[in-house]
Each structure stands twice: as structure tokens, then as C-alpha cells.
Amino acid sequence: MRTLVISDSHGHIANLKHIMGFVKKYDISAVIHAGDWNTIESVKTVLEFGVPLYTVMGNADIDEGMEEYLTLNTKGFDRDFLKIEIDGRKIGIIHKALINDKRFESLDVLISGHYHSKEEKMVDFVKFVRPGAVINGVNFAIYETENNSIEFISEKYD
């Protein structure tokens, strides 16, 4: 199963729409967003594509009503740290990760945002992934549950 992984969209609707256009191309079954939506409109843009959304809040998610909207309209939401299971894989979602946190020990992958950079590394048997920032362009990752792999995708467009 393929999951689209994004973070730090900071209200950039055009980039979100472009990225969500890859849902069919990559046969995406779910979307993970690691926080810093900035606006409820950003969340609505992703939800329009009809794919289950799992997300946390980031430090820039201060739009009035954001927490309530995410609670009512997403498949999975937590303010700080969300642990989900997709296709048998244990996935953690957090905006700004502290690497040596006991909550992460049983995970297959930890998705984090905040730093606007792409990164993939192993930390104590857990795959740690940052997908890059949506606000910096078309930056996202595809998480493949079958083999616990990440593919980073960056694209420039007009």
C-alpha cells in the first residue's frame, strides 16, 4: 500500500493541489501530513481528493478552529503525536521529533516535519523520515508499506 507523505504546507494551496494530483498516478491509499498546515483551507484542499488523511498539528497551526476541524474531518488526528497502523506497519506522526523518545520504539517508521528538509535515516531500528516542505515547492514522499521504503519526489512546475 502506498501512502503520500507531506509536511509544512504553510497554506500553500497551489503546491498542495499539484501534489494531490499524484494520488491517482501513484495509486495512493492514504495521506500523512506532519503538521504546519497554517489554514483550514489547506486541509480542505487535501480532503477534496477523497483519500483518508492522518495528521498532527504543527507550531504554525494557529487558525481558529483548526484542532476541532482536524478532529472532525480526518481519519486520524492528534495534537502532538499520532500512532497509526496501515497495512500492518506501525507509523508514528509528529511535527518536531525528539529522536530518543520511548513512544517510537515499536514503530516501523516515524514521519516528522518542521525542518523543511528531506531526510531518511535509521534511529534505533526505526526508520525516521522527513518529506521536505510543501511550501518550498512540490516536495513529498511515497511510503510503501510492503517493503517499508520511502521514495522522495521533488518537482518544479509553473
Report a brief summary of the structure.
This protein is 18% helix and 38% strand. It is built from 4 helices and 11 strands, in the order E-H-H-E-H-E-H-E-E-E-E-E-E-E-E.
Describe this structure in words.
18% of the residues lie in helices and 38% in strands. It has 158 residues and is of the alpha/beta class. It has one domain: Purple Acid Phosphatase, chain A, domain 2. The protein has a 6-stranded mixed β-sheet. A 5-stranded mixed β-sheet has the order 5-6-7-9-8, with no helix packed on it. Helix 3 links the parallel strand 2 and strand 3 (53-56). Helix 1 (13-20) packs parallel to helix 3 (40-47). It is globular and about 40 Å long.
Query: Strand content of the residues, in percent?
Result: 35-45%
The order of strands across the largest sheet is 4-3-2-1-10-11
CATH topology: Purple Acid Phosphatase, chain A, domain 2
CATH class group: Alpha Beta
**Major sheet:** 6 strands, mixed
Q: What is the gyration radius calculated from CA atoms?
A: 14 Å
Structural class by SSE content = alpha/beta
Assigned CATH superfamily: Metallo-dependent phosphatases
Return the domain count: 1
Number of helices: 4
Mean pLDDT: 94
Tell me the series of helices and strands, N- to C-terminal: EHHEHEHEEEEEEEE
Mass-distribution shape: globular
Topology, number of strands: 11
Q: Ranges with pLDDT <50 over ≥5 residues? A: none
N-to-C terminal Cα separation, in Å?
30 Å
Helix content: 10-25%
User: Would you identify the CATH architecture?
Assistant: 4-Layer Sandwich
Keywords: Metal-binding
Protein name: Phosphoesterase
EC number: 3.1.4.-
InterPro entries: Calcineurin-like_PHP_lpxH, Metallo-depent_PP-like, MetalloPDE_YfcE-like, Phosphodiesterase_MJ0936/Vps29
